Amino acid sequence: MIKSFASFDLKAPVEPWVVIAQAGDQLVRDQVRELAPGGVIRELDSMKMTDVAGLFAEFAEKLSFPSYFGHNWYGLVDCLDDLHGSWHGKRSVVVVVEDADDLVEKEFFPLFIALLCEAAERANLSLDADNLPRSRPPFPLHFVFFLARFDMREIAGLLSLRDDLLIRESDGRLLVWSELSD
Q1: What pTM was computed for the model?
Q2: Which of 25, 96, 142, 151 is 20 to 30 A removed from 35 (C-alpha atoms)?
Q3: Could you report the per-residue pLDDT of 90-103, keeping only the tens digit for each?
Q4: How many Cα atoms are found within 13 Å in the side-chain-facing hemisphere of 67?
Q5: Taking every annotated instance into account, which residue ranges of this chain make up the domain Barstar (barnase inhibitor) (predicted)?
């Protein structure tokens, strides 16, 4: 489903969970930069995520996943939802992927975005895998993808094939989250 939407806040535990923007989108870059003093920004290398194994390895390395990470989709969700390590401290986290155009072309991209939304929803709302409240406080977790050559309408069309995602357009960017959280 595609709707219009006016704003987003990467420092708050609120939707959208995923922002897809053009490389020159200064508003998104400013929000990422403003997070730096008290939050955590992790930059992933899209060139290392050309296949599923590389994607899992890049997330595991850059986000210090525990050794028991199973290098599978649901292991990714579980590890993102419950970030570990002294670097985190339940602070706001934004995971940034620059030059993500090649990633968009991968067959797994829509599933990947849906699972990032699931992990972020669980972290932002402090829900367990059964969508029951946790005893720990929520922490903001968002994902930002910067693109150079893709038209956002193409990506919106690709993502809208999934019935578990909401996609909203805002000033040339896509804001994405789980259908369940709306």
Answers
A1: 0.91
A2: 151
A3: 789 999 999 999 99
A4: 0
A5: 42-122
